[in-house]
Amino acid sequence: MIVLVLEYRITDREGRVLGNSRFQGPLKLRIGSGEVWPELEEKLRDMKPGEEKEFWIRVPYDERKIKRIPRHLIPGDLKEGEEFLLKTPAGEWTARLRGFEGEEALVDFNPPSAGEEVHYWVKAIYREDLGDSI
């Protein structure tokens, strides 16, 4: 496994900023842990400190991230397709309402850019190879 810390800027096709380490802080990833989708991991795996890369990549859409939750957890004025912040004991999650079915809400936890290509600019600021021990 490799620990990689990156400065980054992610934009969509229209140039809108989706993420930026300037405001959100550096991104710490564990390459080889399964926390990053394979296509992105492949682009980052060999980066060394000081190295910069730019690339386009399609953000995967994961049907398993569509969940049924109790309707009462959804803000009352929310409409289909709108994003909201769901607060749980495990943390806060950004989600999109897909609709209602009886007393349940269908909620999509995929990022808004899922299924679309986004542009990454990354700069490695730290790298540590932990081998297979973790």
What structural class is derived from the secondary structure elements?
Answer: mainly beta
Total beta strands: 9
The appropriate CATH architecture of the largest domain is: Roll
Strand content: over 45%
| CATH fold name of the largest domain | Chitinase A, domain 3
Main beta-sheet strand count, sense and barrel state: 5 strands, antiparallel
Number of domains: 2
- Count of helix runs: 2
Low-confidence stretches: none
Radius of gyration: 17 Å
CATH class label of the largest domain: Alpha Beta
Query: Based on CA inertia axes, which overall geometry fits?
Result: elongated
What is the overall pLDDT average?
91
First CA to last CA: what distance? 7 Å
User: What order do the helices and strands follow?
Assistant: EEHEHEEEEEE
Proportion of helical residues: under 10%
